[in-house]
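Practice problem: Molybdopterin guanine dinucleotide biosynthesis accessory protein MobB
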Amino acid sequence: MRLYGVTGWKNAGKTGLMERLVSEITARGFSVSTVKHAHHSFDVDHPGKDSHRHRVAGAQEVLLSSRNRVALMTELRGGDELTLEDLLHRLAPVDLVLVEGYKRDRHPKIEAHRAETGQPLIAPGDPTIRAIASDTQLESDRPVFDLDDTSAIADFILEEVGL
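Answer key — structure tokens:
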């Protein structure tokens, strides 16, 4: 499975870039799935709903299905967080998986950077970052794209992964 990441510090524009890349790449006829890492506790379920009641009662996994979508919720209940590799094995085959977060994993990435965050670039110390998408001009030993030039960024990623 072809894999490419979008990484960067908080509020650097990762999610907006991911959203635009999914739209751009799927419009070109490729199938795309995404994986998003959360550093905090989250819940996609709602108290009082049947699926939530199943989880609270102790179900390890709850599979929610309708004619529009399927959602599998797995309770780790104190167990180890799944690795990116583990998660990728759970996905159906697609042309490209875009990954948001997972800074420390070794897949190729583009770094989203906004000057207003005041954060330094991650790229100088990370060879897995192959390019930078920034809202400001930067000097780098890697390609630098305008953060809003989704088409050029998509071209770069697709070339990198051989699509």
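Discussion: The radius of gyration is 18 Å. Students who identified this feature from the tokens alone can consider the problem solved.
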